[in-house]
Design goal:
This protein is an alpha/beta fold. The chain has two domains: 223 residues, Spore Coat Polysaccharide Biosynthesis Protein SpsA, Chain A, CATH 3.90.550.10; 191 residues, UDP N-Acetylglucosamine Acyltransferase, domain 1, CATH 2.160.10. The chain is 19% helix and 32% strand. It starts with a strand and ends in a 15-residue tail after the last strand. The structure holds uridine-diphosphate-N-acetylglucosamine and calcium ion. The site of uridine-diphosphate-N-acetylglucosamine (UD1) has 29 residues, from strand 1, helix 3 and strand 10. The site of calcium ion has 4 residues, from loops.
Length: 455
């Protein structure tokens, strides 16, 4: 059988210290779940040979990464990190894995380069693990050495100054490299005799040392990116680290980032050099911002495209939207999934657009709802125009032709079509199609009566 270096992500824990029902590995940093980052870091080194132990909220984790689910191993009861490894062992052996890197799923910012260097330095060892030096070892597992030689990893709870001390500040980062054949006989030696009553993967170190195997603690400095996340505060700190790194990269590439400390850009976002982002703003998901486009302050954007010279003005909210060249939205615009503003189309304040195409040059300046609509080029949609697209059961389409003019405060009761060049009088409730070039008025006529005064 071929020999494979594989990776195993431990992601079954509940994350009690997060105080949330969401499995910890699905907690998000700049819009992406922790586990997504771990896979990003591992993929260049391990390709498809990445397995994941899931347990708490396994169905949710599976649903978040369906493409990886065939390499998920279920740890039905979470009896500790050592138990997670035991549960996955046979699947790894069956797949031909001979050398295994194990990484905690709560270490999302581990850089690929650090992992690659660690694997390179672990060659020939039975067991190696990454260590970091911290001023305060906090709740991390502590590395115990004698004359510089690793003896054990002792969890903070179990650390005893008399037996192990003094603590040096060298901690276990939670990344291990195992020679599977060498480590296999140690697995059965793990016990729950510790303060947590769990099987610890870290006990493998002491067991290997007892058997005179070659064990290495690979020191990796003090890089905060390698710290595990256990609490909301640590999540926020890690997110800030990542945010600053992404913004620095954008600035270096030629993006104009104003009020940079409050610009939050997700890792999948692409911003072209010459574009402008002004904080505070969030730009997340698979968003693309083209050259010379401008995203103003107090804007939230996810999974959208902002074309060249397009502008997203302050206080706008975009999700799954597309702005063509020189299109504008806002201030105070809401573009929901499927909103498309083609070249030179403008929507102004308090305009909501959902699953609708506003073709070239369309203007909807104020206070409108356009849902399931196709609005022809150069048409003007007056203030307060509403597409009544929902009959309580189904959604219906509104089609408006080119060069039409929809008067203010018009209700378009879908399904309905307004022809090209048509004019709809202000305040109309349009329930029937309007032919091309027609004037439609559908409102009560004004009556001016004599005013009656009390006697
Ligand atoms: C662990 C290490 C500690 C190290 C730290 C680094 C152990 C015993 N301790 O502590 O030495 O300094 O990471 O961040 O390993 N998990 C499972 N199944 C379980 C329990 C946990 O898959 O039964 C997963 C969790 O989802 C998590 C990872 O293992 O992603 C680590 O578990 P966690 O409880 O966070 O360990 P720490 O206390 O942080
Ligand atoms: Ca942890």
């Amino acid at each position: 059988m071929q020999s494979i270096t594989g990776a195993l992500v431990l992601a079954a824990g509940k994350g009690t210290r997060m105080h949330s029902d969401t499995p910890k590995v699905l907690a998000r940093l700049l819009g992406e779940p922790m586990l997504w980052y771990v896979y990003q870091a591992l993929a260049p080194v391990f390709g498809d040979h990445i397995w994941t132990v899931v347990g708490h909220g396994a169905d949710r984790v599976r649903a978040a990464f369906p493409e990886r689910a065939d390499r998920f191993v279920l740890q039905a009861e979470q009896l500790g990190t050592g138990h997670a490894l035991q549960v996955a062992w046979q699947s790894l052996r069956d797949a031909g894995v001979t050398r295994l890197v194990v990484i905690n799923g709560d270490t999302p910012l581990a850089p690929t380069a650090a992992l690659r260097a660690f694997v390179d330095q672990s060659g020939g060892c039975a067991l190696s693990f990454m260590t970091l030096s911290l001023r305060d070892p906090a709740a991390f597992g502590r590395v115990v050495r004698k004359n510089g030689v690793v003896q054990a990893i002792v969890e903070a709870k179990d650390f005893d100054l008399d037996d192990h001390g003094p603590a040096t500040g060298e901690i276990n980062a939670g990344v291990y490299c195992l020679d599977m054949a060498a480590v296999e006989p140690l697995l059965a030696g793990l016990t729950t005799e510790n303060k947590s009553g769990e099987f610890y993967i870290t006990d493998l170190v002491g067991l290997a040392v007892e058997r005179d195997m070659e064990v290495k603690g690979v020191h990796c400095g003090a890089d905060p990116q390698l710290l595990g996340i256990n609490s909301p505060a640590e999540l926020a700190d890690a997110e800030e680290l990542l945010r600053a790194r992404i913004v620095a990269d954008l600035r270096a590439s030629g993006v104009l980032v104003r009020a940079a400390d409050s610009v939050r850009v997700g890792p999948r976002v692409r911003v072209a050099p010459g574009a402008e982002l002004c904080g505070p703003c969030d730009v997340l998901g698979a968003t693309r911002i083209d050259a010379s486009a401008c995203v103003g302050p107090h804007v939230w954007i996810a999974d959208s495209e902002v074309g060249p010279d397009a502008q997203v003005r302050p206080f706008s909210h975009l999700e799954g939207a597309r702005l063509g060249p020189n299109a504008w939205a806002g201030p105070f615009a809401r573009l929901r999934p499927g909103a498309v503003l083609e070249r030179d189309a403008h929507v102004g304040n308090f305009v909501e657009v959902k699953k609708s195409v506003l073709r070239e040059g369309v203007k909807a300046g104020h206070l409108s709802y356009l849902g399931d609509a196709d609005v022809g080029a150069r048409t003007n949609v007056g203030a307060g125009t509403i597409t009544c697209n929902y009959d309580g059961k189904n959604k219906h389409a509104t089609v408006i032709g080119e060069d039409a003019f929809i008067g203010s405060n018009t209700a378009l009761v879908a399904p309905v079509t307004v022809g090209r060049d048509a004019l709809v009088g202000a305040g109309s409730v349009i329930t029937h199609d309007v032919p091309d070039g027609a004037l439609a008025v559908a409102r009560g006529r004004q009556k001016n009566l004599e005013r009656k005064r009390g006697s």
